[in-house]
Amino acid sequence: MKSRLLLTVLLLFTSFAFAQNLDVTGTVFDASGLALPGVNVKVKNSSKSTTTDFDGSFKLTDVSKGTILVFSYIGFRTQEAAVSGTNLTVKLTDDAKSLEEVVVIGYGSQKKREVTGAVAVLDSKTIDILKPARIEQALQGTISGVNVTTQSGAPGAPLDIRIRGIATNGENKPTVIVDGYVGDLGILNPNDIESITVLKDAQAAIYGTIGANGIILVTTKMGKKNSKTRVSFNSYAGFQETSRKLPTLKATEYALLLNESYANGGRALPYPNVSGLGNGTNWQDEVFQMAPIINNDLTISGGSEKITYSISGSHLDQEGIVGGDKSGYLRNTARIALGADLSDKFKLKTNVIYTYFTRNTLNENGLGSVLFNALNVPATLKPYDENGNYSLVPSTTGLGTEIINPLAQIANTYNDYNYKKLNGNFGLDYKIFKGFTLSASIGFNTANSESKDFSKQISYGGKVFDVQRSSVTQKAVNDNDYSFDLFGTYNTKIAESHNITGTLGTTIYKQWGNGLSATGFDVPNNTWENADISLTKGISETLTNSSYVYDQRRLSYFGRLQYDYKGRYLLSAMLRRDASTRFGPGNRVGYFPSFTGGWVVSDESFFGEPKFINFLKFRASYGTLGNDQIPNYGYLGLLNGEATYVFNGTLGNGVAMGQVPNPDLKWEEAQKFDVGLDLKLFNDKVSIVADYFIDKRKDLLIPNIPVSGINGTGAPGASAPTLNAGTVKNSGFEFAIDYKEKLSDSFSLSVGYNVTFLKNEVTEVKNGTGFIEGGAFGVGQPAPSRMEVGKPIGYFYGYKTDGIFQNQAEIDAHPSQIALGANAAPGDIRYVDVNGDGVINSSDRTDIGKPIPDATMGFNLQLNYKALDFAIFTFASIGNDMARNYERTLSDANRLDYVLDRWTGEGTSTTTPRVTTGATANNVFSDYFIEDASYIRIQNIQIGYTLNPNVSQKAGITKLRLYAGVNNLYTFTKYKGFDPGASFGPGNRDNVSQSPIGAGIDYGFYPIPRTYLLGLNINF
């Protein structure tokens, strides 16, 4: 009987004990009430742990009441809380000794409060909200001093990143470092990125010759220690449409305009009867279309006490709003990242990424592009003739030889490009003794691409696009590089007040590759399906094959010494020595020193207890960086030019000198100066960062500087040399303010604003003439852009206008304009006699605008109310101009509807000239074609709903979020063209970079699409 009673008591106690075990859910916030993702939640003195998700939520199962949970997160004080129920809310406070997060600064990391350079960080949460197809888009408007412009809105088109302005006529893009090795930002899956750090000033000097244009450090996602396997699936689908259509003339309007133009020119009317023409064909409606976009990515991550892992894959499929799959883009990525503590001394980290993408392209920019034709083909023409074939645009004088049916152009465009890349790194840290760690890593990139272009035999009716003989061109390119970094880091503390960190290391970098191109003629059946060189049997008298190889190497040594006194006085000094094979033996080595300093004023005793101001730090930096982004072997004379000669009436092929060598080539040198402050107010709710900077770029590496003709630079394949021939100065001011507040238990907000003011000025041009020309406008006109002392690089150089001549008396009283091509008549543009010599000629050309903005800014707002979240991101560019060049200046080409307000008689217009088929000077490059391209763009709006975790967890889902969003919703601008944010200059001789001399000239830019998205985020 006693034994039964004892058993009953034990069972009661046991059941009572089990009844105390709980499933605990909770949310972790920061001091301002915003949820913190990635916080480590660990049961004290146990291996059981988890991490908070995107919304700061966590769940631990089978936890006994009274258990102590430990919450830890970088930049915040570790905090403990006892389990008293099934729900727990924890608020972490900033760690006074570790303000905010740790940021990477190149060959190491540093607490943000101790950073003395101009460094900005973009986190994965912002990237997730923006949902960019290419990660560069997420930098626009989110980081001050960074401007992103499009080369085209077509899927997969490159984007140009500029940090603190344009400083050189060569390669202006920053260097991207992915987990320690040189990588490519554009091909990464945005969901694989944990953070992006931008080094804008002399802090980047640790990278020496590749740091002049700024450094972008990308940290990819890793698993977290002591966390269960987490599966995250993100998917969105949507459709794209053009964000803008231009108001061209309808058929009746066009016919009436042409009648007036012909009458003014003394010619017979082309449309004696305009009745029945109606609206005609809207060619933009014909070429623009809705286009789908689909993205899926899956990530599996987790970790134990000593091993972390993250495995992911993604798929993006995007068609174009012009041409559909003829301008489509498909990208697949796969990634695996592993970290392992091999022992107490050895730590291993590896990250490997595979990317495969295909891209098809149309003629997107320049005279003769698809949109150029859609704007210029008359509305009176139909897309198809009576037989159902594409209609031909007449080859009359009034329509020229380059305007063709854009639908036929799309249908007869055939090309394919596929790209495969494997890149990654393997790193090992060895803790030799306390405070000293030796790090070694190998980074690599290996890429192979293949392309095929088919030119179909076709006639557009006597146009320049007619193809008399079908051909196919196939190319294969192999590019490789590797880097080996070996550096040691030593940390020590002296007398509890003096903190010293020293870094010393070396980098070996090698880049090599080859390319092959061949063309075959007479494609069987004149079809894309048979477009392969193996099937072509046609013979050409000219050379159709070409190839190249290259090999470039760099050996570097670097050192950095960091010192702080009680975290209050901060000093850092860096020195890097680079030796590059891109320069001749006499200029192969460069030295790049820099110094930074900071003072945390808020730590001073006289500052008192933090009240209104919680943190105040002043910063300053100065250093020298380099730029070697030029083609290889510029200091040598290579036989890589064309050489086709006529001997005895037959063609002979050989080789000739290419670019004229310059053995004196040396680095571009960037001298960067920055002073700034970091400020936190109102219990860290308000953060302010301000900087004033000067970036002076000396010895610009400028290609194709004209030299004496006796050197043969006009021969086929030859070119003028690359010279150190200029100096450019960028100066400006950056300001960013962020405000975070939790207004109630259900409602919180985050607001951010940043602005950058920039002044660009050329201070030296060493080429004998004092200026460098570039770009193109119209047909046969002088170069419209210049690089000249005292002006912004690439400013527009043309004639100033002064309204419209209203009568003959005004013409008689004005200097003659006949030197511009024709006598003026009432209704023509009146040009300004700039030099006052009594005649209007080429000497009166002057500064009429610039493509570089005076200021850029971003405004971002995020709101959270219970399970709802809302975000809006905007961007503005102020003070930049663009040249309107998408209208063909031919009498019979279609026009935009602003011409309806043209001059038709005295007093009718003072802005838009008359129309005529007669000779006029109205089409010379002038400020009539220059427009203010300032704009404000709503880049992204997104609203989401997160299902109650108590509901989703019943299905084994820790988080389920649904959202809808719109990218590129609307652009407010006075600019008449498709996209005021586009800027695409002529290509440099390296076939990679674009020159800023000639940028901002609009040939009919393919607009960035407006994209509507529906998506979901699921975590298991």
Automatic annotation (TrEMBL):
It holds the Pfam family TonB_dep_Rec_b-barrel. It is found in: Cell outer membrane. It is a multi-pass membrane protein. It comes from the Bacteria. Residues 1-19 form the signal peptide. Keywords: Cell outer membrane, Membrane, Receptor, Signal, TonB box, Transmembrane, Transmembrane beta strand, Transport. InterPro entries: Beta-barrel_TonB (IPR000531), Beta-barrel_TonB_sf (IPR036942), CarboxyPept-like_regulatory (IPR008969), Plug_dom (IPR012910), Plug_dom_sf (IPR037066), TonB-dep_OMP_SusC/RagA (IPR023996), TonB-dep_OMP_SusC/RagA_CS (IPR023997), TonB-dep_rcpt-like (IPR039426). Residues 379-865 form the TonB-dependent receptor-like beta-barrel domain. Residues 111-215 form the TonB-dependent receptor plug domain. PROSITE patterns: TONB_DEPENDENT_REC_3. The keyword Transferase does not apply. The keyword Cell inner membrane does not apply. Belongs to the TonB-dependent receptor family. This is SusC/RagA family TonB-linked outer membrane protein. The lineage of its organism: Bacteria, Pseudomonadati, Bacteroidota, Flavobacteriia, Flavobacteriales.
